[in-house]
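Question (not urgent): is this output format expected?
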Amino acid sequence: MFYETKTDLLDAAVSYFGAGLESNEFCVWAIADPVTEEDAKNSLRREVADFDRRLAAGQFEVLPGHDWYLKGDQFDLKRITGGWSDKLRGALSKGYEGMRVSGNAFWMETNHWKEFCEYEHELDESLAGQKMIVMCTYSLRASRAVDLLDVTRAHQFSVARRNGHWEFLETPELKQAKREIEKLHDAMDVLSRPFPGHELLTPREHVVGEAGQGWTVALATLAFERGVGLLGHQLSFRRELDGVLEAARANGRSADPVMRQRLARSFAELEILRFNTLRSLSGYDGPVAPPEASISKLYWATWHRRLGELAIDVRGMDGLVAGGAPSDLDGYELDEFQRTFLFSRAETIYGGSNEIQKNIIGERVLGLPPEPKGATR
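Got this back:
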């Protein structure tokens, strides 16, 4: 920060440190002419109601700037930056939220200007990620034009306080960055405007896989459906079959040799389905399902349809009658066997009908000649 008068410097520093004290930060003011230790404390005492209590508790410290920066009239970059690091660690160990520092650049009229410029570059980089902020103050009256450029380039941003008014100083790099940001905002405005057909696009967060890799994703999901996903289906299949077996025992249908044979066949085929699925899973090597998985959809859809038919046969004629009022279609209530019977017939159609599955097995697994296609004109 550049200041015009002593009052400008005190006003800015008091507001700066007042905010730090209220935020439970450890504050250090490295003073130099024109500010004395008495000026610093009296100014803060007028601004912060409990300043003396905080001062006694050690939350605020005044350092003689010349002694801190030029001990023995020698400039030592490592000693200075190391000193700030030690104070920061001490502040954090005492429970403070961080550290707030200000130092007045008395060195502008000394032969150490170049060294201090290097120090400020080093300090600015070392502050990244640290719980510490620093306000360096410079006298406008003691600054040359080239000094203004050196200071603004060494800091993240620079301001000036002149007779109670604030001004923001911009470097050429900052101006260029602002122009680039404005260009990006303009581009974002264009991209965010709706265009014909934009509602048909899939939101990025809903996209699975990389752009242009849709077929690979489809093969992977198919492999999951024919493998791991089918294991979950088999649990529900087994529960349905157990229900049919229990009903057959309860109503005596299991005593019928033909019915008993159908029940045994359904049980055996479900076990075959389970073992074939496990065999398919053991053969996976990549996103594409192995040949054994090709028969899974045809097999389980056909098996489930036969189970639905078996369930209705076990129930007998009353299995064909739905509950509810016949005059009110919404009043019909289907039991578990009836739902299995009706829904399982759809399974031989969706996800690739049985006829399509047979063509796939013949052409892609068995290598048979493709089905004849109609002539095109």
